[in-house]
Amino acid sequence: MKFIRKHASLALAILSIAAVGYRLFQSFLSREWDNPQDEMVARWDERLQPLREALPSGLDQIGYVDTSMVTGDPSAFDGEEFFLMQYSVAPVALDVGVRQEWIIGNFNNDVDFRGWLETRVGKYEIQSFGFGLYLIHKLDP
Q1: I need a labelling partner for 65 at 20 to 30 A (CA). Which of 15, 16, 36, 76 fits?
Q2: Is 11 exposed, middle or buried (0-12, 13-18, 19+ CB in 10 A)?
Q3: Is residue 88 within 8 Å of 106, Cβ to Cβ?
Q4: Do both 75 and 111 map to the same domain?
Q5: Checking DSSP bridges between strand 124-128 and strand 93-96, what pairing results, if any?
Q6: Which domain holds residue 101?
Q7: 58-103 pLDDT per residue, tens
């Protein structure tokens, strides 16, 4: 009995180390550690690159509107997408709303945002970047 008590903890430690080593070996073989394209932030940033390149130079702030504003449902505001957007357009600061001359729109495909924009912005030009992302330029700031 003494022998079992003495060596059981050692055996469990060895098994735990072996299991962790095996998992690390599997990760190495599958190259999970070397796949930045699967990382959410990297994919988002890559998707936003064309929009970021279309922003006018010297811009300090840009407006940001999303589906929650069009539908009038503040609980639908996606804070995660907002922070990812802020990360991708930095050092330009996002300003929620339509006060700025330039606005980023982030809309679901099933939302009719054009009528909503006309009533709040007036005349505007819009450029689509896919995935429900738009760059909106107010013509009468």
Answers
A1: 36
A2: exposed
A3: no
A4: yes
A5: unpaired
A6: 36-138
A7: 999 999 999 999 999 999 899 889 999 999 999 999 999 999 999 9
pLDDT tens column, 26-69: 766 666 555 554 577 788 888 899 999 999 999 999 999 999 99
Q: Total structural domains in the chain?
A: 2
One domain, residues 29 and 96: no
Position 10 pLDDT exceeds 90: no
Do residues 105 and 68 make contact, with C-beta atoms less than 8 angstroms apart? no
Same domain, yes or no, for 99 and 74?
Answer: yes
* Same domain for 28 and 75: no
Tell me the residue type at 25. F
pLDDT of residue 8: 67
Counting Cα atoms < 13 Å in the Cβ hemisphere of 124 gives: 25
- How distant, in Å, are the alpha carbons of 6, 51, 126 from that of 121? 76, 20, 12
Q: What is the rounded average pLDDT of the residues 93-115?
A: 93
Give yes or no: residues 99 and 119 share one domain: yes
Q: 102: burial class by Cβ within 10 Å (0-12, 13-18, 19+)? A: middle
